[in-house]
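Project outcomes to date are best conveyed with an example. Our students and postdoctoral researchers have been running inverse folding experiments weekly, and each run begins with a structure described purely in tokens. The record below, which covers 296 residues, was selected by the lab manager from last quarter's runs and is presented without edits.
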């Protein structure tokens, strides 16, 4: 019995203290970088490749996503978090507002990923969270919800969730009679957690039945396409709208979000540059030791 207890204690101590090159599951950190990216329709991916130089124009002037073909594709923020948490050699990127203590956010160009640093302009990996809808959509619940989202009522909520709320001057006024039309919202998985909180706050403030708001997620491109063709009343995008999307839809910046570069908590890396990050994601750098990270 003593031997069993000692073994359990040793495991617990190893996991609690941590070793630079060994994860809690016992897997050692490899010098080979495991690159995790998002699916092609993801707004987070779109913003990331643009901001880091992974996306470049070719000779014809067409934008090309140069993400290395060997990168593992994750179709949601939660999947990226899980993959990086499980793999000591992995690197990925997520919405700053979704960051948790199971992974490590790497300072970008020596600057930590914080709301304060995004507001000051020192942390440059940031992008807008957009919502968009057709101007001729006469859904009364949609109209009231947009009014709520643009009000001072949501400013504190957005900031408390780790994002930066736009300036608002008017408070939301509860309608005399709550609208009853069903409201369908879909799009970016990065915007979804924040929208979930805001929908809950709206239901409480407006008197609209919770069952009338149908919220789910896929990705930014599907969100905008669905808003344009009428499948969704409101689309969510974690990037700027394309020219075609902007021409077809009314849009509003719900919040500003940072993109956090994440690695396993056991990874000893202290900072990463734009050039290093780009080279990792286009496959020119494949080893941690190539960017000065010592693997024990």
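After processing, the design step wrote out the following sequence:
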């Amino acid at each position: 019995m003593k031997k069993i207890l000692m073994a359990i204690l040793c495991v617990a101590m190893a996991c609690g203290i941590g070793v630079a090159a060994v994860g809690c599951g016992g897997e050692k950190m490899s010098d080979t970088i495991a690159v995790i990216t998002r699916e092609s329709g993801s707004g987070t991916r779109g913003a990331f490749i643009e901001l880091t130089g992974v996306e470049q124009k070719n000779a014809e002037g067409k934008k090309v996503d140069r993400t290395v073909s060997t990168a593992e594709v994750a179709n949601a923020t939660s999947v990226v978090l899980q993959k990086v948490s499980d793999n000591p050699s992995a690197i990925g990127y997520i919405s700053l507002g979704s960051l948790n203590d199971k992974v490590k956010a790497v300072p970008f160009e020596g600057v930590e990923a914080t709301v304060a640093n995004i507001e000051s302009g020192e942390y440059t990996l940031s992008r807008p969270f957009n919502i968009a809808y057709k101007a001729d959509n006469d859904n009364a619940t949609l109209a009231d919800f947009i009014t709520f989202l643009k009000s001072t009522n949501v400013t504190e909520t957005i900031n408390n969730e780790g994002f930066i709320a736009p300036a608002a001057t008017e408070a939301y006024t509860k309608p005399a009679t709550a609208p009853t039309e069903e409201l369908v919202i879909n799009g970016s998985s990065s915007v979804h957690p924040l929208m979930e909180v805001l929908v809950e706050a709206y239901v409480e403030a407006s008197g609209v039945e919770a069952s009338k708001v149908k919220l789910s997620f896929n990705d930014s491109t599907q969100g905008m396409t669905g808003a344009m063709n009428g499948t969704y009343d409101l689309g969510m995008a974690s990037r700027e709208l394309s020219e075609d999307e902007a021409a077809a839809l009314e849009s509003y910046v719900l919040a500003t979000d940072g993109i956090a570069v994440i690695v396993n908590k056991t990874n000893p890396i202290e900072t990463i540059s734009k050039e290093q990050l780009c080279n990792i994601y286009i496959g020119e750098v494949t080893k941690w030791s190539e960017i000065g990270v010592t693997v024990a």
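Residues 85 and 102 are 6 Å apart (CA to CA). The radius of gyration is 21 Å. The training component of this project remains on track.
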